Amino acid sequence: MATPSTSPDRGVRLSYLRHFINEHGGEASFAGKTTAQVCFEFVVPLTKPSELSLVDHVASDPTTANYVAPANWYVSHAWMYLFLETVDSLERFFADRDLGDDAVLWFCVFNNNQHLASSYPFEYWSTTFKNGLAAIGNVVMVLHPWNDPIVLRRSWCVFEVYVAVTLGARFEIALAHDQEQRCIGDMAEDGAFRKMLATVKCENSEATVPSDRDGIFALIRAETSFIAVDQLIFSVFADWIKRTLEASIPALPSLLEQAERWSALGRIYQDERNYGDAARCHEHALLLRTSRADPLVVAMTQTHLGMMRSMLNQPASTWRPLFESALATQSDALGPFESDVFETQYYFVAALSRNGRTDEAKGIALDLFDAHRHVYGLAHKYTAVVMGLVASLHVHSHESRASLRWSRKAAALQEQLHGSDFLNTVLTLQIATVAYMNLGRFDEGLALNQRVLATTQRTFGADHELTLAATLNQGKFLVHVGELARATSILRSVRDLLPSAKVPKDYTRDVELNLGHAAWTSGDLGAAADHFQVAHRRVPGKCTVSAIYRLALATTDANARRDLLDLVVLDDIDEAPETWVAECVLCSKPVTGVLLTCKACPKGVLFFCAACAATKRGRLERFCRHDPPVAQLETALPPRRLLYHDALLAQEGSYERIESLLNDYATYCETYKVPMHERLQRRSVPVLNRNWHPMV
């Protein structure tokens, strides 16, 4: 715990810590003692004659007064820490920054009057704390142990981070030498950084006086959030560990040790979804290991580099050979049922999925799941990860019911094994939210997505890919449930963050599409058209064409309709022009042929195929939230078919041209299996059925 000083603007120079130790028998007298013990065994007796704080006591003695000066660093620490570790942490921190001679510390044990501390109420401490930190402007937090810091389990220390957040103070962390070495060593273990992110949660902190905790939490919730507090800690720590790891590499004695450090750094960037820097690190590691390391180590490095290149959407020729080489090496040396082989297959499936090769990926993934079930059993952490991968592939394959089953089972197992804030748990829950959305189960999906969003904001910050995906989904859900103002505000906040975020360009398209659907639902078809056209310019594709086309059908102005239809570029390489990108919420299959929507429901939300609309009307109308809840169904033909119909039903045109067009239409219908009752009949074509005269 840290508590305020009677003189919050004053502190002791860093050198006084060593003077204090030497004056009381040297390090041997302090060995194994916590800061709390040092307070009661040394500070209280020393200041008993004056009954002042140690800072004021030192200042009143001419022989030591030069150790006191205006404080420029506020030290946040836990009284349960070993005192010598805290001193080591601070000395190393300031030495690394060449600040040792200038650092003057506000250190609670020394600044607070320990003879009166128990008599002051919460309001006194909180006000003095905040004022003192505001005046100083710099906070250094001693973090021990690195992966579950005691300091963050103490509410008063969390309060100090809260003050730093609200005041915009500089916030840094410090580790003792052995803690730093332990942290660097732990980074060699895959998943160590993810585990730390899931473990640290300031909202779980405690105080010796329960009412102090309640008061601190009330202040945090009123002025900021625990998400912001945690995010400040994570961002500072992540920057520190990345800097420390990379700076330590040149001093390592062997090239293979350097390669291991590069790999550890690459995995941290990988966990952050910073694929460019992750690829850079794995390239360094592969270069150093090739011809030097065990072939199996080289193979796993190829796997990680291949995955990063695929996530950067680089050509398959840059990553597929790496996977194939790694799998050949691993299978020859280990056989098919070994963890390295499984890991490479897992990343290969993810790479295929990322690059649109879903069918190939799904076959490998299902085989991989069967192998994991055989080798590890259903309740193993590795099996749970593969289950999450299968769930994601089902979403990409428009199999939302299957995806929801897989993702819920995987998330339940991951939460049991790792906790609700573990990265893999959150990723799997994010898949489940998409499945809920596709199934029209918006209330359940919205509640789950709020949980995912809170975790990603806390862990990664607002501009991280996972947070942006969850925020975008939040906006989509709110459109779906009709909360258009909130949806629009959230979607615009995502759009504002995208220029500086490291995310695929699909995010820009999806934001504009959802803003368009919100505008369309509110009745502003002009704004909807603008958003859809921006989306189409940024990332043209079938989903943007579909949105523009459906809006054109809803437009009553003939000129506006024609202008929109002119934007619908018929892509000759589209192998499925009768299939929509929309999924029927009743059968969870891509809609083929006639698309049906409810005119009274939010736009771009609920789609139905003709078969389900005809046979499941009761289930269909359960999705209608309007009054009365009776579906007002509208139909839309696939774009290419409609353009055929428009041309054939025109009143003008030569007989030969229309005859040729009708033959093309008939071929189209046969090729794409258009039902007979949906086809335009010859007798319906005006030009081919008018009364002819040889002189006409």
Ordered list of secondary-structure elements with their pairings:
Elements (H helix, E strand, L loop, with lengths): L9 E4 H10 L3 H4 L4 H13 L6 H6 L8 E3 L2 E4 L6 H14 L7 E3 L1 H4 L10 H15 L1 E5 L12 H13 L2 E5 L2 H10 L5 H8 L10 H14 L2 H23 L6 H17 L3 H15 L5 H17 L4 H19 L4 H16 L3 H18 L5 H16 L3 H19 L4 H16 L3 H19 L4 H16 L3 H14 L8 H16 L3 H14 L3 H13 L3 H10 L11 E5 L6 E3 L2 E4 L9 E2 H6 L1 H5 L11 E4 L2 H10 L6 H17 L25
Parallel strand pairs: 3-4, 3-5, 5-6
Antiparallel strand pairs: 1-2, 1-4, 7-8, 9-10, 9-11
Helix pairs in contact: 7-8, 8-11, 8-12, 12-13, 12-22, 13-14, 14-15, 15-16, 15-17, 16-17, 17-18, 17-19, 18-19, 19-20, 19-21, 20-21, 21-22, 21-23, 22-23, 23-24, 23-25, 24-25, 25-26, 26-27, 27-28, 31-32
Average pLDDT level: 90
Instruction: Tell me the helix content.
Output: 55-70%
Kindly report the spatial arrangement of strands forming the biggest sheet: 2-1-4-3-5-6
Assembly form of the protein: single chain
Rg value: 32 Å
Question: In this structure, how is the largest beta sheet organized?
Answer: 6 strands, mixed
Strand content: 5-15%
Shape: elongated
N- to C-terminal separation? 100 Å
* Low-confidence parts: 1-6
